[in-house]
Amino acid sequence: DYEYALDRDCTTLSRHVLQQLQSFSPDAQDLSALMNRIALAGKLIARRLSRAGLMEGVLGFTGDVNVQGESVKKMDVYANDVFISVFKQSGLVCRLASEEMERPYYIPENCPIGRYTLLYDPIDGSSNTDINLSLGSIFAIRQQEGDDSDGAATDLLQSGRKQIAAGYILYGPSTMLVYSIGKGVHSFSLDPSLGEFILTEENIQIPEKGAVYSVNEGNFWQWEESIREYIRYVHRTEGYTARYSGAMVSDIHRVLVQGGVFLYPGTTKKPDGKIRLLYESAPLAFLIEQAGGRASTGTQEILDVVPRQLHQRTPLIIGSKENVALVESFIQQQAKEQ
Ligand code: P6P
What we know:
Elements: H1 2-9, H2 13-21, H3 26-50, E1 61-65, E2 71-73, H4 74-87, E3 93-98, E4 105-106, E5 116-124, E6 135-143, E7 163-171, E8 175-180, E9 186-191, E10 196-201, E11 212-214, H5 225-236, E12 241-242, H6 248-258, E13 260-264, H7 277-290, E14 294-296, E15 316-319, H8 321-337
Parallel strand pairs: 3-5, 11-12, 11-13
Antiparallel strand pairs: 1-2, 3-4, 5-6, 6-7, 7-8, 8-9, 9-10, 13-15, 14-15
Helix pairs in contact: 2-3, 3-4, 5-8
Bound molecules: 6-O-phosphono-alpha-D-fructofuranose.
């Protein structure tokens, strides 16, 4: 009805955060404003992606190689800089740690206790940019603890339980922002005519079990035998279907909505897998746990892993409780047999 429609159109992200916190304290206002800046970053990135084929500087590579040894896409650099610039003069975030930067970026000269750190993957799945397929940004917010005047950011080497908020932006047919501040998972859709993210769904619950398994089967012969056994099982068992897009945010959004599991196991070339803990698997694990799902390395909850260094990778098995447990049962079975 009219009331409902108007109220819903007015449930912007920043208002929703305050509703979630049921508070107008300075901290609540800060978090609300911070989420609003993340929404602005999402709008700027979505706008550029929508013009990929129409302007220079969006498609293709910069010619550089990043700290991960991966060739850098123009969109990686643009998106990374967008997050930095939306937080300048915000007084909210004093430090940004990103897949694209060897060391964190400090907005003031150092990061005072009580301010926030943004950990983010500015564009996840950037290989999809040049083929006009979906991709995402992933973010996590932590509170600055202790003194980081030496710029070593060692306080970030703590488990994902320290996250205050996390989420992703999915640049798909519509642009969606999905977030949690520890009080459930909520999704917003960008209304380009308003330039606002409007509430789409509250308290999203991931199904206990799902049909989808999402993994790059091209790595089959690089996996542990236990993962190969799991894949053979889902191949011969009724009721499973494979979906893999090359952009984890899309694949995990599908798993969140429909149920199932996304996995990026370790390989012979990359025993710890490819996915980064601090700004990819930990934020996604925070979100999926809030939605009633699970995220594991195969032997440990993702949120319990304490990183040794900023860009640490972990194997990732994430999704519906039953689907994650099934993968783990094959890993445990192999461990017993060894
Ligand atoms: P592969 C993108 O680079 C990414 O981090 C994820 O978004 C995606 O799921 C994965 O890597 C794709 O990697 O090795 O399957 O091509």
